[in-house]
Amino acid sequence: MKIGLDIMGGDFAPKATILRAISAYKVLSANQKLVLIGDKQVAVDLLQENNFSPDHFEFVHTTEVIGMGEHPTKAISQKPDSSISVGLNC
């Protein structure tokens, strides 16, 4: 089973979400795989800073980020390559 994780959303993202992805990886069963959705290079850099191999995850690279002050519905339609938009369509 694949589990999608929007690494660009939430408080203190993407660092906090990457750290939680590392924690989750350690408890997932062999048939479960995390798919990190967001800026792949940022994710890879953070994983390597924490001595964790990016090979443990699949990635769906996105190029846009929806800011906290943006209207959610408008942002999703105006930023189709944001992590949340791409994740909803996976």
What is the strand and helix layout of this fold?
Blueprint: E1 2-6, H1 15-25, E2 33-38, H2 40-49, E3 58-61, H3 72-78, H4 83-89
Parallel strand pairs: 1-2, 2-3
Number of strands: 3
Largest sheet: 3 strands, parallel
Structural class: alpha/beta
* Structural Rg: 13 Å
Q: List the strand order in the largest sheet.
A: 1-2-3
Number of helices: 4
| Low-confidence residue ranges | none
Keywords for this structure?
alpha/beta
Short description:
This protein has helices at residues 15-25, 40-49, 72-78, 83-89, and strands at 2-6, 33-38, 58-61.
Walkthrough of the structure:
The protein is of the alpha/beta class. The protein contains 4 helices and 3 strands; from the N terminus they run βαβαβαα. It has a 3-stranded parallel beta sheet with strand order 1-2-3. Strand 1 (2-6), helix 1 (15-25) and strand 2 (33-38) form a beta-alpha-beta unit. The longest helix is centred in the first third of the chain and has 11 residues, at 15-25.
